Amino acid sequence: MTNQPTIPNSSLKVLVIVPAYNEAEGIGQVIHQIRQDIPYVDVLVINDGSSDDTSRIARAAGASVID
What we know:
Order of helices and strands: EHEHE
Mean pLDDT: 92
Largest sheet: 3 strands, parallel
Helix content: 25-40%
Low-confidence stretches: none
Radius of gyration: 13 Å
Structural class: alpha/beta
Oligomer: single chain
């Protein structure tokens, strides 16, 4: 038996904010796991000046990104 979070009232919005710096190797998996575990949330990655492909990978995984 798994503990699934209760989906909140549809009029409420939930935002998960993920800070990231040079996380290209793992950011896609992090976003995928968030979407799998709590599919009703929006995901926002705050890219803190990464010099790798963090932003591109996060966007490709479906997150909104602030560079």
